[in-house]
User: What shape does this take?
Amino acid sequence: MKKVLVSNIDKSAYDDSFIVLSSLLDGLQTQEIAYTPWKDFPYKPDVRVAIAHSEDCIFLKYFVTENAIRAVNSQINSSVWEDSCVEFFIHFNDDKGYYNFEFNCIGTQLGGFGKTRSERDLLPVELVGAIQTESFISKVKVKEAVYWELSVAIPLKVFIHHPISSLSGQGGRVNFHKCGDKLPMPHFLAWNNIHSAEPNFHLPEFFGEVYFQ
Assistant: This one.
C-alpha cells in the first residue's frame, strides 16, 4: 500500500494568490499515477500529482501528457469523467463514507460522498463551486501529444460530513486517478493499485494512506 506525507504550506507563503500557489506546488515532490489495473484498457498517459495543505485547504496540482483531450462538460457536477479527467478520492479516519472529487482538463468540478459507487450523493453545487481550479493546456508538437496542468484548492467547508477545523495531524486514506471514458483511447489509471474484474475507482479498500503534516 502506498503512503503519502502531505506538506503544510503556510498561507502567508502564497497570500491568497492562485498563481503563487501553483508555483509553490511546482516545487513539491510528485506522485505518479501509473497503475493500469484493467488489461482491456492498457493506454497509459503520463500523469503525476503534487499535494499539499494549509490549515483550511487541500491543494492539488496534476501534470498530464496524453495523446488527445476532451473537454465537453462545463457545468458543476456534470459528467466530467467522460472528458480528460483527474480525480481525488479521500476518506478520513475509519469512516466508511468517502469523498470523490473529479475534474476535467478545463477545471469543471464534481464532488460526491457515499459508501460505494452506487450509494452516493452529489455534494451541493454551491459547495463544489467553492473549489478553485486553474488549468493550462498546451499542444506538444514534437510528441504529437497534449500537455495540461490543473491546480485545485479544496476548502475544508466542502467536507460537510466531517466538521474538521484543521488538517494538521489528520490522517486518512486516498487514491488519485486519471480517466477519460469518451476519449479516443479510454483509460483508467490509479495511484494505488486496484484489484477488481472491471474498471471501478470506488473501492476504498484499495486506497493508500495519507497523513497531513
The longest strand covers residues 145-155.
